Automatic annotation (TrEMBL), chain A:
Residues 35-49 have a biased composition (Polar residues). One of its GO terms (cellular component) is TRAPPI protein complex. Keywords: Endoplasmic reticulum, ER-Golgi transport, Golgi apparatus, Transport. This is Trafficking protein particle complex subunit. Belongs to the TRAPP small subunits family. BET3 subfamily.
TrEMBL record, chain B:
One of its GO terms (cellular component) is Golgi apparatus. This is Trafficking protein particle complex subunit BET3. Keywords: Endoplasmic reticulum, ER-Golgi transport, Golgi apparatus, Transport. It holds the Pfam family TRAPP. Belongs to the TRAPP small subunits family. BET3 subfamily. InterPro entries: Bet3, NO_sig/Golgi_transp_ligand-bd, TRAPP_component. The lineage of its organism: Eukaryota, Fungi, Dikarya, Ascomycota, Pezizomycotina. The keyword RNA-binding does not apply. CDD domains: TRAPPC3_bet3.
Length: 264, 192
């Protein structure tokens, strides 16, 4: 199996394809199937070699919020996700490898969901303040600069977008040795509802897919992080899952600088 | 009341009352990442990606039919025309909240087309601009497999393939479905 490109390369290639839609390197070929998820229509897109239907039924002609409140069958999701896991399982060497693969499949979704979230926050709640000339003070900064607002973004809006409810808990590591570790808890992850894990694989948590999305959101905001999903069952919540976020050193250093500068 | 109208009513009623829902974008994105992964694994060999998608769909269809029968509680269809309505107006409604149009029947009533006005799987999608994907990739090919798998479990061998897709620049998205044969009930082999 080909080694995946480093994460930052993926981010780069994405931002490239944002600014130059004629770009056609190998990585965009993988990204493109839904790269337009978050792209606003740009005039330059008409210069691509893609054919479009004459009735203009293209992504550029449909509103990004069209599917905002749309619903689909939970069974359909379960079938697709199960098939995705089964397919991945045939191509991996072990549990860790499988989780890595699921994580990688979630990662690009995180990047796109992030843009979608910001787009909707802006167009939804602050559109009025945008139209007025002085909107600097009223609306909160779009992208989180510090870790805590980022975590709240994941715990609240991201979870609500994906699962129609916020996550169940948000915690900071109590150990002085790991100040860079944060935990987001989901008592009953939707993605695991119809997954039954065989005994010999009891370590496996298929919510690694969601962990990948979180990682994509963090990276997309400029917070380098590793995110993993862990089983922490309780009597009441047998499929309780903890998403462990480990931020990189550069993030922690910047955090200190920003704190001194009084940035919230 | 025509069988189409009747099926539409059943489908809509079921969607409202019997179907657990999730956010549509989660499903759309998950399907997108599956196709993207296949394109990567098969190194842009789109015919192979089509084939894999069809296989995945077949696996899904074999299990999905049970969910369909349990939810819909419909009986056996009298003919293939009724089957087509049941697929388009009840099946697609339950699982994707759409109801493609059934059309273009052959005179022997063994072949029809499903024309999709909406396709949630392909929301937000643009195919890679590599000069090949628009000629070779059938993005929603998993649906062909779902039909084949599901119908096989109710004794119908069918073949399904897309003939056009708006993602390829066509004006419609159309799937062609052909009945090959009704599978006769076979007795399990006698134990020796």
């Amino acid at each position: 199996m080909a080694q995946p490109p480093p994460r930052h390369a993926t981010v780069l290639s994405l931002s490239n394809s944002n600014s130059n839609s004629n770009l056609s390197n190998a990585s965009t070929a993988i990204d493109r199937p839904h790269s337009s998820q978050t792209h606003m229509p740009t005039p330059s897109t008409s210069s691509t070699g893609l054919r479009v239907p004459s009735n203009r039924k293209t992504i550029y002609d449909r509103h990004l919020n069209r599917s905002r409140n749309a619903e689909l069958s939970r069974a359909s999701f379960a079938f697709l996700f199960a098939e995705m896991v089964t397919y991945a399982q045939r191509r991996v060497t072990g549990i860790q490898d499988l989780e890595r693969r699921l994580n990688e499949q979630g990662y690009p979704l995180g990047l796109r969901l992030l843009d979608l979230l910001f787009y909707r926050t802006v167009s939804g709640s602050t559109s009025s303040s945008l139209s007025s000339s002085s909107s600097t003070s009223a609306s909160p900064p779009n992208r989180p600069l510090r870790i805590l607002p980022l975590l709240h973004l994941i715990h609240g809006p991201l979870w609500r977008l994906l699962f129609n409810r916020p996550a169940d808990a948000l915690e900071h590591s109590v150990s002085p040795e790991t100040p860079n570790e944060y935990m987001i808890t989901d008592n009953d992850p939707l993605v695991n509802t119809y997954i039954s894990v065989p005994k010999e694989m009891s370590m496996l948590n298929c919510a690694a897919f969601v962990a990948g999305m979180i990682e994509g959101v963090c990276d997309g905001c400029g917070f380098e992080a590793k995110v993993t999903a862990h089983n922490q069952p309780t009597e009441m919540w047998p499929s309780r899952t903890i998403f462990l976020l480990r931020f990189g050193e550069s993030v922690m250093e910047r955090e200190k600088v920003l704190e001194r500068a009084g940035v919230k | 009341m025509s069988s189409t109208t009747k099926a539409s009513r059943i489908g809509e009623e079921l969607w409202k009352t019997r179907v657990d829902k999730v956010n549509a974008e989660l499903v759309t994105l998950t399907y997108g990442t599956i196709v993207a992964q296949l394109c990567q694994d098969y190194d842009g060999n789109y015919p192979e990606v089509n084939k894999q998608l069809e296989k995945m769909g077949y696996n899904i269809g074999m299990r999905l039919i049970e969910d369909f029968l349990a939810k819909s509680n419909v009986g056996r269809c009298a003919n293939f025309r009724e089957t087509a309505d049941m697929i388009a107006k009840v099946g697609f409604r339950i699982f994707l909240n759409i109801a493609p149009t059934v059309t273009n029947w052959t005179s022997d009533n063994n072949q029809f087309s499903l024309v999709f006005d909406e396709n949630p799987l392909a929301d937000f999608v643009e195919l890679p601009d590599d000069g090949r994907a628009q000629d070779e990739l059938w993005f929603s090919n998993i649906l062909c497999g779902v039909l084949r798998g599901a119908l096989e479990m109710v004794q119908m061998q069918v073949e399904a393939h897309f003939v056009s897709d708006v993602l390829r620049g066509d004006d419609t998205t159309e799937m062609r479905v052909s009945l090959i044969r009704y599978i006769e009930d076979e007795m399990p082999p006698e134990e020796e």
